[in-house]
Structures are given as C-alpha cells and as structure tokens.
Design goal:
Number of domains: 1
Number of helices: 11
CATH topology: TIM Barrel
Shape: globular
CATH class: Alpha Beta
Strand content: 5-15%
Distance between the termini: 46 Å
Number of strands: 10
Strand order of the largest sheet: 1-2-5-6-7-8-9-10
Radius of gyration: 18 Å
Helix content: 25-40%
Length: about 300
C-alpha cells in the first residue's frame, strides 16, 4: 500500500455519479447475461457518461487477472475457469444494446497457452455473425509477445486492434510489472505487418511521474516504429489507496498541446484529455480513421 500523500483532485476534474434509465437498462442486460465490463471492474470515471449513452466495454476471459499492475483495480489471482460460451453472450448483448461499435477487452490470462487469443477470435466471430454491420474494436493484452496469438486475433478481422503501452519505459517496473515497453511496441508494429488494413491503437496514462520529454519520446516511437494510427492520452486516477498515487494532475491545456503534437507526428487521430480512456468516444473515432461512418 502506498504511503505517499494524496493530492487533491482539481475542480476541473469532476465526474458525475451513475444514474438514469440507460444506465440501469445496461446494467440489467449485462447482469442477465453474466458479463463483465472494464467500466465497472476497473472503476472507470466515465461509466455514467458512457452507460448513459448506451455503450459499454465488455471484459472477457473472466474478472480475475494473472498480473498485478500498480494502476489497475481489477482483481488479481489465478483464474479457475475458462467460459467458452462467453463469446455468444457478448454477441447477444451487442445485439440487444444495438451497438454500432463494440469494444472488447480482457484480463491477462497468462496461464493459458495462447493467453486467451482464441476466445478473442471467437468473440469477434460471434459479433460478426449476430451483428454484421457493427464495427469491432479489441483491446488486447501483450500475450507475452506471442506472434501466433496476435495472428489468431487478427485472423478474425477486428476493425481496430488496440494494445495499451500505459506509461513510459522508465516507469514499467512500478506501473506495469510483468510487461515490457519494447515488447508492446513490437506487438503494435506487427499489427501492420500481419494485417495492414487493420487500424492500430494504443494509449498512455499521465500523472504517474513521467517527464514531458519521456512522453514525447514514447509518442514518437509508437508513431514512427509501430505506425500506430490512434493514440489516447488520459489522466491516471488512483482507484484505491492501495494503488499507485497520483504524482500530478495534468491540465487540459497540456492535453490539448499533446494532441496537436501527436497529430504532427503522424497519428491519424489523438484523443487526449483528463478523462480520456481507451474506449472513450471510441465509436466516434471509427469514421476518422477508416474513412467511413460506423456501420449500422
């Protein structure tokens, strides 16, 4: 548990509490189908806004992660079960919710030979079969660098392949133990090598102690070496006192400046702001990076 002094959240960084008919409608659908969302498990600050708009990010492969990242509120442990019926239930939820763009992520399942890649592929295929006009975005783990696992996911044909680097290389041991920045960059580079038509995406959290030159260096490497199309930049928020403390709150003006810098580096789209998360306004990014509106 961190003993660092917590700094107060600024006035311009406020979120509203979940409420409204859509929020409770989605909650009922997800509970009825025994599905998890990263919105709830990771304590996303945008759950009220996104669920109020009728969108959610599905979290497959259970709710127990085999890694213990310093920023993440998802439970850590050894998963005991692999639910092979889950893809069909996700597809049903996408249909019932009427989603034009579905976002699917997962916990890490390092105990599985393919890291869960086959379940990602099955989920993509189930959504395609049930909702052929829905665009699909997957936010995948690093699969321990396995090219075969990445190929399995890409063979299923997601529209957007997202993998977050989360932070700058220097902070990995503290923020993302068990992962490697260079390995994540290589995974993203392989996306364009294996499936050139797939949109690639990544994201970082700010406020964990990174310096401005470190952020710019990481952004440039991801744009040049991995040819990433979409970058998300958001403020890290400490989910519980047991997690890493916030070192500083990044002002919205700084996020706007980073978005401008990112576009100059060659990204096709940069979503940057204090409350930005990987799937925040994800559906709105589809026409920007693909040249066509979300299919419906």
């Amino acid at each position: 548990m961190s003993t660092a002094t917590r700094i107060s959240r600024p006035e311009w960084l406020k979120v509203r509490l979940p409420s409204g008919d859509n929020y409770f409608r989605l909650k009922g659908i997800l509970r009825g189908l025994s599905l998890n969302t990263v919105c709830e498990e990771a304590r996303c600050p945008n759950v009220a806004e996104c669920w109020g708009q009728g969108t959610a990010t599905f979290m497959i492969l259970g709710d127990v992660c085999t890694r213990a990242c310093g920023f993440c509120a998802v439970k850590t442990g050894l998963p005991q079960y692999l639910d092979r019926e889950e893809p069909a239930r996700v597809a049903e939820a996408v249909s019932v919710m009427g989603l034009s763009h579905a976002v699917v992520t997962s916990v890490n399942r390092d105990e599985l030979g393919d890291g869960g890649a086959s379940i990602f592929a099955a989920t993509i295929e189930a959504i395609r079969s049930r909702c052929p006009e829905t665009t699909i975005e997957v936010l995948i783990p690093d699969f321990k660098g396995s090219r075969e696992s990445l190929e399995t996911v890409l063979a299923a044909g997601p529209d957007i392949l997202n993998h977050n680097v989360e932070t700058v290389p220097r902070l990995y041991k503290r923020v993302r133990p068990g992962a490697n920045f260079a390995q994540s960059v290589e995974l993203l580079r392989r996306v364009k090598e294996i499936a050139p038509g797939t949109v690639s995406k990544t994201g970082m959290m700010l406020g964990l102690g990174e310096s401005a030159p470190e952020v710019e260096s990481a952004m440039r490497e991801l744009a040049s070496d991995a040819a990433v199309d979409v970058l998300t930049l958001g403020q890290y928020l400490q989910p519980t006192p047991a997690h890493l403390p916030v070192v500083r709150f990044v002002h919205p003006d700084e996020f706007r400046d980073l978005a401008r810098r990112g576009m100059a580096m060659g990204y096709r789209h940069v979503e940057a702001g204090p409350l930005v998360r990987s799937s925040y306004h994800a559906a709105n990014q589809v026409p920007v990076v693909s040249g066509h509106p979300p299919r419906r």
